[in-house]
Structure formats: structure tokens, C-alpha cells
Amino acid sequence: MSVGMLLLLFGVINGLYFAPPDYQQSDAFRIIYVHVPAAYISMMTYSLMAVASVIGLIWRIKIAFAFTSSAASLGAWFTFLALVTGSIWGRPMWGTWWEWGDPRLTSELLMLFLYLGYMALRASINDTQKADKLSSIFILVGAINVPIIHYSVEWWSSLHQTSTLLKLDGPSIATSMLIPLMATIIGTMFYFISLLLIRVRAEVIFRNRRSKWVKDLILESKHV
Amino acid sequence: MNSFKELSMWNGFKKMIYRDLLNSTKNLSQLMNPLLLFILISASFPFAINMDENQLIMIGPGVIWIIAILSFLLTLNNLYKDDMEDGSLDYILLSAQPLPILTLAKIFAHWLLSGLPLVLLCPFVSIFYQLSIEVSMLLSLTLLIGTLALSLIGSIGASLTISSQNNTTLLSLLVLPITIPILIFGAKTVVLYQNGHTSLTGLYLIGAYCMFALSFSPFVSAASLRIGSN
Amino acid sequence: MFDFFDMEYASFVYSAFVIFFIVIGICTKSALDLNKNYMKTIRIILNELEAKK
Hints:
The complex is a heterotrimer of chains A (about 220), B (about 230) and C (about 55).
Chain A: H1 2-15, H2 32-59, H3 62-94, H4 103-124, H5 128-142, H6 145-155, H7 175-207, H8 212-220
Helix pairs in contact in A: 1-7, 2-3, 2-5, 2-7, 3-4, 3-7, 4-5, 4-6
Chain B: H1 2-6, H2 9-25, H3 28-48, H4 53-75, H5 77-85, H6 88-94, H7 99-125, H8 133-160, H9 168-194, H10 200-228
Helix pairs in contact in B: 2-7, 3-4, 3-7, 4-7, 4-8, 4-9, 7-8, 7-10, 8-9, 8-10, 9-10
Chain C: H1 10-52
């Protein structure tokens, strides 16, 4: 856990990096530094959950299910964050809190519902193994949403702009704005991974609570 | 050699549909309730807004679509839950027929019983919203394909929740996000037609969604049934 | 550094950041609490197993 805390600190320091550099337009633009990491992570966790579900269902590796269930509530929070920060950003830029015509907004909202549905389904089934497998199937059914969110700005006309970071000939965003953005993205990702690892560790220990290695682990260390 | 004919997949499919249809005739009132709800809610909706005719015509298709989806979701439990409760699901799982064929048969029977009546009621309900005959026919057509897609998607949700208690709201929570695209396509088709565009593109889209659901839904439902009922 | 509050839409930007950090705080707190609760449950179970021996 101490490693996780270190990563956390690293992430936070990186995240606060956005303050010093100055910008051409010091507008509401700055919300990008929280909105983009949140959105990126929300999509990344769903993909991770989908991959973990496949691994758990096909190869029956139990840790994959522990991973999926730990990632779910984190992913849901980040999706919520992406939607809220995006909405706050949208108010000054586009003049509206929400825009139904924008496909990325609606598919991100859909993703929030998928996360919530996963958690509800998991909670409603008493048997852990069944709950694991059935909710994994549900994640896979909804997995098609992730490419929809990602490519929706290319396929339909949308208020969002197309991707400026991962283009083949280098990012097309100004460097002075790029550095803080990469810093916050990486920082938030580190933070997210550290939280995820804490949760997965707790989940795995809890699932195996009746086994010998857990007993040894807990009895040996006074402070876990 | 008659036994070979009996074991064929088409035969299994047919017999399953017969079985579901016969079973439902014992409890027709259970089928009527969602339909009555459909009519009732559609009729109550204009009271909530101020009943201006133009406004009703504009929102009519979308509202009817949503109410159709909502009342359809109530019928989804009939797919698998009843069979699970009286034990026949175990027999279905043990049968020699491939399970996706049987789930497809059940979905189809469910569509005949719960989806088609909605489609038939649709022209009458659209009278409440002052829709013209052509628009209501188009609405019914979109609902026809749409309810089939809903049956398919809904069966995934129903099969995932068979082992949960009191699963009606959970089922709706799971299925509704996935049905949002078809809601958009269905309602938009009619609205576009009302504004003068052709309805063909929308119908193609609904058909495409339905085919897409058809391609994976029986298999996913079969897998979930196997996992959920042991 | 003195133009922090002179930005246009300052309230929007700051509220977004505040919400971000609030949610991050919630997530951290929930993860740590989860850890604590799990450990408590496991300790109880282990104590029971010890007592049964």
C-alpha cells in the first residue's frame, strides 16, 4: 500500500502542475485538464473491465473477476466526473449544460448506465460465482459502446472536436498547453491505478479469506 | 426413422413456440395487463402537458415509442422466470436441441404474444395524439421491427437476471440503456417522415439494429441461462 | 499568479476542479474504508477459526 501512496503523491503533484504555465486564452479552457483525464480513464476502465471479463469467462481465472468488480465503482465515478466537468465546461463554451444532439455525450451517459447496471446486477445475485459470470456477460454486451464513444466525433457532426493528441503526425495542440495536459492525464492515471490496486488487493484477500495464505498474511503482519 | 425428424432443429423450434403459445393461453389476463397499461399511460400523457394539437403531433411518435418500450419491459419476465419457477427451465436446458435455437424460439413466441399486440394497438393509441393515418401506420411499422429487437435485447437482460429476486426494476435498469439506440431510430424515423423526409433510411437502421441483435442475442441468452440456473 | 480570479468564467473553472478533487477524495476514502472493513471482517473470521481450534 505504501507504493500506492507514493504513486498517489506523484499523481497529485503532477496534477497540480497545471497552475504555473500561462496561456494565450486563460478562459474556461482550463477545465480540459480535469475533463480529459476523467473521460480517458472512464473509457479505459470499461475496456479493462471488458478484457478482464473475457479472461475470466474463457480462461476461468478468478482474479479477473475480482479486478472487474473493483474497477466498476471507480469507473462509474470517473464517468460521472467526465460528464459533470464536461457539462460545466459546456456551459460557457457552448452555452448549454447539456446537448442531446451530441453523440459523445449520450454515449458517455450510456456508459454510466452500463456501469450502474453492472453494479446493480452484481449486487442482486447472492452467489458470488454466478454474479461474477453474469455481470461479466453484461459488460461484454455493452462493450460496443466504447468504440462508439471514441469514434462518434468522427462519424457524426458533433460539438466535440476530433482527437488532437493521437494523430499520426504528432499532436496538433500547442506545446505549452500540451505539457500540463499530459501531466494531468498521466497523473490521474497513476492515481487511478494505485486506487485500483488497493481495491483489487483488498478484494482478492477478502475472496480468499478462508485460505491459509491469508491467515498467515494477516497473522504475521500486525499492520496490513 | 421418424425419430430423426423429431430431433431436427426446425422441429424443436416449432415445438417450443407451440409450447409457449399454449402456456400463455392459460393466463391471458397476464398478457392483457401491459397492453392496458400502454393504453392507459398513453392516454394520461396528454393530460400532463397542455394538449395543444400541434405539440401533440410533434411529440406523439416519441412518446408512444417510450411508453411502448416501458410496457414491453414489464412482459419480459414471462420469458424465462416463469419457466424457472415451475422447474421446466431445467428440462429445457437438458434437452437435445441446441439451447440458442430454443431461446430464439422463446423470443419469437414472446414477440408474437407481447410485441404484436402493441403494434396492433398502436394505431388506436395514436389517435390520442392526433397523428394522421400514414404517420400512425409508419409508427406501427417501426414498432413492429422495434418490438422484435426489444424482445431480443430484453431476453439478454431476462436471462441475466433469472436468479435475482424481485428483478423487474433491475431488468428495466439493465435493458433500457441498450434499447436507447432503437428508441432513437424508431422515434426519429417517424419524426423525419413527419417533416417530409423519406422513412426508408430509418427503417433500414431499425432493421439493421434488429439483425444485429438477432445475431448475438440467442447465444448470449443461452450462455446466461446455463450459468444462472445451476 | 495574481490573475487567478480575474479569469473569465472563473467560477466555472474552479467549480470543475473542486468537483474533480472532491470525487477523487471520495474514491480514495471509499477504497481505504473498504480495506479497513475487509480487514475487520477477516480478523473476526480468523479469531473464530482460532477459537474453534
